[in-house]
Design goal:
Chain lengths: 111, 120
């Protein structure tokens, strides 16, 4: 069982916006501004999309944005495109480890 | 842009030691601002950080794997390595190496991953 809870799946149509939630506790998501989001296409390595809750690495589309409220972090993808179809994982620093813990992952389907 | 490439045996016998090496190109493993780490992903399952390290020798481990993990770095070859001892079938996974923004992870550049199967 993952430390962080994500919905198993979300879906949206091209052009729409979707939000993926990542729920933890005050010992991880709520206690640190060190939440990251990764995109993973089938058979590929993860790609960092958001770090430190809301920062985008160079080269990541501004259609991807991150936020946090209390113990829940969120990834929003606006203007959905077919290429956004992938698995998305959140992660957070936690008081119980020196390393990030991951959520269980969310499969995004673009209808 | 950094490029990372994992190498090592794809099949390891139960109770033996899994050994993988990550070769870094496009940058120096001795960069003071970077950490280097390993993540694994069992088939069809989620991601798990194994450990991270700084070239200076600082290391950080998953509590559940700490007793079985050894990390090392070879700055002359721009490589870092992972050893996982006493493996079982539960250690079967795709293993990724990554450059990390900080000691806790936040992997920025990743290798393509290598599948390691534990089986007799």
């Amino acid at each position: 069982q993952s430390a962080l809870t994500q919905p198993a799946s979300v879906s949206g149509s091209p052009g729409q916006s979707i939000t993926i939630s990542c729920t933890g506790t005050s010992s991880d998501v709520g206690g640190y501004n060190y939440v990251s989001w990764y995109q993973q296409h089938p058979g590929k390595a993860p790609k960092l999309m958001i770090y430190n809750v809301s920062n985008r690495p160079s080269g990541v589309s501004n259609r991807f944005s991150g936020s946090k409220s209390g113990n829940t972090a969120s990834l929003t993808i606006s203007g959905l495109q077919a290429e956004d179809e992938a698995d998305y994982y959140c992660s957070s620093l936690t008081s119980s480890s020196t390393l990030e813990v991951f959520g269980g992952g969310t499969k995004l389907t673009v209808l | 842009q950094l490029q990372l490439q994992e190498s090592g045996p794809g099949l390891v016998k139960p109770s033996e030691t899994l050994s993988l090496t990550c070769t870094v190109s496009g940058g120096s493993i001795s960069s003071s601002s970077l950490y280097w780490g390993w993540v694994r992903q069992p088939p069809g399952k989620g991601l798990e950080w194994i450990a991270t390290m700084h070239y200076s020798g600082s290391t950080y481990y998953s509590p559940s794997l700490k007793s079985r993990v050894t990390l090392s770095v070879d700055t002359s070859k721009n490589q870092f390595s992972l050893k996982l001892s006493s493996v079982t079938a539960a250690d079967t996974a795709v293993y990724y190496c990554a450059s990390c923004r900080d000691y806790y992870g936040s992997g920025t550049y990743w290798g393509q991953g290598t599948l390691v199967t534990v089986s007799s």
